[in-house]
Amino acid sequence: RSITPTRGRTTSSAFSATPHSYGLSSMSSMSSGSSTLDRVDFQKAKENVSVTIRFRPLSVGEIQRGDEVAWYADGETVVRNEYNPSTMYAFDRVFGPATTTRAVYDAAARRIVCGAMEGVNSTVFAYGVTSSGKT
């Protein structure tokens, strides 16, 4: 979506570092040996759509060809065009190419997966070209 007024949304990020912002009571109970998953706050988990973007790093072949990145993350929620910085789009969360898969999972999918394990209807939809890092 393009940058528009918040339409009733709060300005705080849904992906802050506190466990409660994920809708979970505790993030430590998924360690090995634990028999229960984190409990999902069903009120927070109710009908929620979040759009998260991850930029993958350039491949060796792309670097050797001299390919350039046309879009970049400007902070945690905005994507800008390298050649026209006034062109920008806002998302719920944006990850740069140096972000690990684990960090993306923890911020964007973990609470959804935990909810699914508790019986909440959930979907994580990953979209991108082949070999773009969706796994």
Note down, in words, how this protein is organized.
This protein has 135 residues and is of the alpha+beta class. Helix content is 19%, strand content 13%. It contains 4 helices and 5 strands; from the N terminus they run αβαββββαα. The strands form 2 sheets. The protein has a 3-stranded antiparallel beta sheet with strand order 2-3-4, with no helix packed on it. It has a two-stranded parallel ribbon with strand order 1-5. The protein is globular, with a radius of gyration of 17 Å. The model is unreliable at 1-37 (pLDDT under 50).
The largest beta-sheet arranges its strands as 2-3-4
Taking the sheet with the most strands, its summary is: 3 strands, antiparallel
The overall pLDDT average reads: 73
Strand content: 5-15%
What value does the Rg take, in angstroms?
A: 17 Å
Helix and strand string, N-terminal first?
HEHEEEEHH
Low-confidence stretches: 1-37
Count of individual beta strands: 5
Helical coverage, percent range: 10-25%
Structural class: alpha+beta
Q: Separation of termini?
A: 24 Å
Report the principal-axis shape.
globular
Q: With helices defined by DSSP (H or I, 4 residues minimum), what is the helix count?
A: 4
